[in-house]
Write a structure and sequence with these properties.
Blueprint: H1 3-23, H2 31-56, H3 61-92, H4 99-107, H5 111-150, H6 158-164, H7 167-180, H8 187-197, H9 200-216, H10 221-253, H11 258-268, H12 276-282, H13 287-318
Helix pairs in contact: 1-9, 1-13, 2-5, 2-7, 2-8, 2-9, 3-4, 3-5, 3-10, 4-10, 5-6, 5-9, 5-11, 10-11, 10-13, 12-13
């Protein structure tokens, strides 16, 4: 992976977020517009990236094994990030009653909104497919371990299973099932998937830019940001620095190929998941802290992702 392509992709992402910042001045960002963006990204753009990637790659038995491997490694890396975040919160912020929230912000990244489109651009259809499976592992972790951590009364049941059955997950299952039986949709549909896949990255970046400005414009934004300043470094450091390094060590230890190693690094280096504030609101946790950590980690990731990829390239080349 050339650093020129990495910086180009991050530069494009930055400009898209900037366009979102400008767009935020042209309309009111309320619950309806927010839901419209999320619906288009998660129910149209991301599933089409996944299906487009599946039908562009020749999936055999070996690739199926690799896909399951990525899913399981993703869960392991996510749990390690949650564990590191919780440990650091207990050690360094004993007076802050937010260890569970900090743990989730440290371990779960924006592997869907940013990770899948970025891997598609940098690593092609096969990279996008692996990235989608890593994101499936994140979704699984969110609605199992994440939900259990935040629940006041621990409950495991069909409700948790229903929340995991979202459109991107279903598109993975349907796409892989068709590919396993060597079934391919007609060209009309594959062409549609290819075209709609292109909207995911721009919409996701526009949404992030709009969300950033809508939060910063709120009258109490400065006070809330100051209130989270003492804890902000913890999830940002764990998520953007320690977890990517751990992912590379795991990949090298398991002797994965270079493409797989790049996927593990990029997805582990993603900023805190955009849906953290939604998850926290659902379980009466600190929604505002989730939103501000998302903003700060997204801004920082524009610098740390190229840095981590550069260091990995030096490491692998030196090894």
């Amino acid at each position: 992976m050339t650093m020129g392509l990495v910086f180009h992709s991050i530069g494009v992402i930055t400009l898209m977020i900037g366009i979102g910042v400008i767009l935020s001045r042209t309309f009111n960002f309320n619950e309806d517009t927010r839901n419209a963006f999320i619906s288009l990204i998660t129910n149209v753009g991301m599933p089409c990236i996944i299906l487009s990637s599946i039908f562009q790659v020749d999936i055999g038995g070996d690739l199926f094994g690799q896909i399951i491997f990525v899913f399981l490694v993703s869960i392991a890396i996510n749990l390690a990030g949650i564990g590191l975040g919780y440990l650091f919160a207990v050690l360094f912020h004993k007076k802050v009653n937010r260890a569970k929230e900090l743990a989730i912000l440290s371990g779960l990244g924006n592997t869907g909104f940013i990770g899948i489109p970025l891997c598609a651009v940098l690593l092609g259809p096969e990279g996008a497919l692996y990235a989608a499976m890593f994101d499936a592992g994140v979704d699984f972790t969110i609605w199992t371990v994440g939900a259990l951590l935040l629940q006041q009364k621990k409950q495991v049941g069909l409700g948790m299973l229903r929340t995991m059955l979202n459109v991107p997950i279903l598109s993975i299952v349907i796409g892989l099932t068709l590919a396993f039986f060597n079934l391919r949709p007609p060209y009309l549909l594959t062409d549609l998937f290819d075209r709609l896949a292109a909207i995911a990255a721009p919409l996701a970046m526009f949404y992030i830019g709009i969300m950033i400005m809508s939060l910063l414009r709120q009258p109490s934004a400065a006070g809330r940001l100051a209130g989270t300043r003492n804890t902000l470094w913890l999830p940002v450091t764990v998520k953007l620095v320690l977890l990517p390094v751990l992912a590379v060590l795991v990949g090298i230890g398991l002797s994965v190929d270079r493409l797989m190693l790049q996927i593990l690094l990029i997805q582990a280096a993603m900023p805190t998941l955009t849906l953290s504030s939604i998850l926290f609101a659902k379980y009466s946790a600190d929604e505002e802290m989730g939103a501000f950590v998302t903003i700060c980690s997204t801004a920082a990731a524009l610098l740390t992702i190229p840095g981590m990829i550069y260091l990995m390239n030096l490491w692998v080349a030196g090894g």
